[in-house]
Amino acid sequence: METADTTPHARPTDRDGTPPGPPDAGPRLALELLVHGVGGTTAQQMLGDPRVQLITGDATAACYRRTVDVDAEQRPDDYHGEPVREAYCWSNLTSGNGARALWLILLPFMVANLAHWMRPAAPPDHKAQRIYDVLVRILALTLTVLLTAAACEVALDLTAWQCAGSAYCVAGKSWLGFLSPAHGGWWSAPGRRLVLASAVPLLLVGLLWWLSHRTWSAYESASPPPRRPGATRDLPADERTALGLDGFWYGRRLVGRLRAAHTAAGVLTIAAALLVATARTDRHDGAGTALAFTGQGLTALVVLLAATTLVIVWRTARSEAARDDESDLLIVRALPYAALAVLALTAVHTAWARPGADSAGPLPGAGTFGGIAVLQGALVLALAVTAGFLQRAAHSTARTALRGMAGPAVALLSCALGGVLTGGVAERFADWLDRGATPGQAYAPMAGPPVLLSWQASVIPALLVVVAVVAALAAVRATVVRDRIAKDIPGLYDPKERPDAWRTKRIATVIARAGLTDAAPVLVAATAVVTLVLGAGAVAGAWLTGHAPGRATDHAAPVVHAAAATAEALGSWLMGAGVLLLVATGRRAYRDLSARRTIGILWDVGTFWPRAAHPFAPPCYAERAVPDLTWRMATWTERFDGRLVLSGHSQGSVLAAAAVWQLDPVTRSRVALLTYGCPLERLYGRWFPAYFGPPALAGLHRQMDDWRNLWRLTDPIGGPIRLVCEDGRRIDCGPLRDPLAFGRTLYHPLPAQILGHGDYQADPVFDKVRAELIARLGPADRHPRPVPAQGGSGRSPA
Question: Which UniProt keywords apply (predicted)?
């Protein structure tokens, strides 16, 4: 390890332009600010003491210290050479009671929002940037329409139109008896049944609006700290990142605008479903020209408001350069209320008496799902073309996931998830309503859900086969890697230790499995390509045949018919089981810590990013955590002129880096960064190259005092940063030995545990590196380091 640089430099000035104090003003305190990772932990565990006290914060996120360290600033002599440890706990931002597992139902929205941030690292002023963002926002809008349409399918079509209109289906369902035409009541008319059932999708849209508004007030309203006037220092253009802009973590106005647009889109979808249901009767059954004219007028209003919604989504963009506190336009704030007014008028129009109207067959408008699927496919293809232009203009393509196609692939998967969730609910609900019959078959009392949903269900088994094949190939690859590296494992330890074949195989297996993380792009690419092909086949089959696969193959060969019927039935059950599994898995994740850590990797990556594309996605915890950390570092260094080491593990290292980017350059130069189990390059740099690519990480290190990163080969999440300092020193310290001892030794009489992603503090290297960082932050070495010429950073071979 290199020795600390003790060359004297000019000291920075304070906010008022005066130096903070002479170098010989006495000992200055050092603070180690700990930030935990995925899964969370308690302040007692982080600080290694059962007696802790809250320093600043609330029950959601706060900083804690040991009770004996609360007044450390008043007695710095007691901490000579040793930092005061302070823990920032943010786990309550992402976890809570089991009810929060319902957020997993919004998984398609979260995945679509991820696609916004996965664009290639092209220059910010590239013309395709704007096109990329618009395409993702429109794609996210189609997911809201799809979810609302699915709720209308369940409530309006399957329940109020088909089942309530069938005496066989209503029999045994007392809660539907008053809607039956045999009952002869006021609600038995088809239009009135639909109006009553429309309350279900309307409540769903209202729930999404409420959740978005509630979390927006709690998360996205945290203000960034003020920056020192005149303390800006420009980096080279290719090393700048939007994460350092003042308004990046303040998305209040953007989320408000998108929330208004998506709420209006959901309400208008319900109104459109009601208008389509009555249009046929008013046009062909002689219900009267007045009703037909009213329906046309309401349809025009729905189209006008839908166009307004699309324009708002089109023109809405993030304002990151500065905090956007301006009030929104009146038309944006009034849009949801206008949509509700049109829905109310539509409900009155639909409930109007129409003698002789019936509800035979499926509800008109079943082709909506096919239209949404085709539109989503076209948007994904356009997104892929746009991403190709951006990737061509990017500065570097090294280690970029899917060569810049990660955004389109993930966007496609969000559409597939939306289709599985909506189709699974509709298929299983229809199967429950018709009491064991198969919806859509000749003998069934119900026509069932749209044919497209049955075709989508029938392709799921084929998709799962492809995923299973890719997973099997990954397992074979892990076995090959294990056998290749097993012979090198004993050489990492003391040659005096006796070789142990079982121990060697165990360590090699853990290393090989940890390396599978780098193969994730292959799985995503294979799933996306197969999903696109099978999805296109499902849409074509539904439009060409007009029947579910089981009926469309009635006259085909017996083997073909049996395979189609089996795929349809199996896929239908898999869709329904997928919805239940998602909810059960999410609920278990918030009760079981081990499950939380397993699932939380992808979940915390997804909810780290602000809601730039979909306002109903789960809230962004970083919009609270990053300002918290930035405020704490800026105010503590300002008040006490002390030394600060920001120590982040796993996802905490990502929060730490984002917080350092938000500091002004003078404060940033007084901070050293210690990361371990860090996914900054391995996950974020590959999947989000525009924000965490090598140039951005190099720029981060240039403007802070120092940075050290610990990593292990056995860690499936963290990895090296792969950068070299200007003076030739590497940021990376590793790979660390894991386990610490190969066999039983004098200091390890019992077999040492393979730590993998956890407990980096158990390695002696951790204390050594931390001590070097604190020594480097001495009074004579707190200065903004000069920015070297571009191209001064390279890649380490690690």
Answer: Membrane, Transmembrane, Transmembrane helix
Is the separation of the CB atoms in 455 and 548 below 8 Å?
yes
One domain, residues 637 and 770: yes
CA distance 83 to 643: 9
Q: Which domain holds residue 759?
A: 625-781
| 585 and 656 both lie in a single domain | no
Question: Are 656 and 561 in the same domain?
Answer: no
Instruction: Return the pLDDT at 782.
Output: 41
Phi, psi dihedrals of residue 389, rounded to the nearest 5°: -65, -40
**Residue 485 forms part of a structural domain:** yes
Number of structural domains the chain divides into: 2
- Give the pLDDT of residue 182: 67
- 705 lies in some domain: yes
pLDDT tens per residue, range 11-35: 333 333 333 443 344 457 889 999 9
**Helix count and strand count (H, E) for the chain:** 24, 8
Does residue 728 sit within a domain? yes
Residues 772 and 631 in one domain: yes
Spatial distance between the Cα atoms of 504 and 499, rounded to a whole number of angstroms: 8
CA nearest to 637, candidates 668, 598, 594, 600:
668
Tokens 């609910």 appear where? 425
DSSP 291-326: HHHHHHHHHHHHHHHHHHHHHHHHH-----SS---P
Place of tokens 């997928």: 578
What confidence score (pLDDT) does residue 187 get? 77
Q: Are 312 and 329 in contact (CB under 8 A)?
A: no
From residue 35, alpha-carbon distances to 87, 88, 268, 530 in Å are 6, 5, 44, 40
Whether residue 678 sits in one domain with residue 577: no
**What pLDDT score does 436 carry?**
59
Q: Which residue, 47, 236, 255, 225, is CA-closest to 659?
A: 225
User: How far is it, in rounded angstroms, from Cα 205 to Cα 263?
Assistant: 6
pLDDT, residue 771, reads 87
Residue type, 354: R
Both 772 and 629 in a single domain? yes
- Ranges in the chain, pLDDT < 50: 1-26, 97, 99, 230-233, 287, 442, 780-798
Same domain? For 681 and 763 the reply is yes
Residue 580: the pLDDT is 75
What pLDDT does 781 receive? 41
What's the pLDDT score for residue 10?
34
Mark whether 512 and 583 lie in a shared domain.
yes
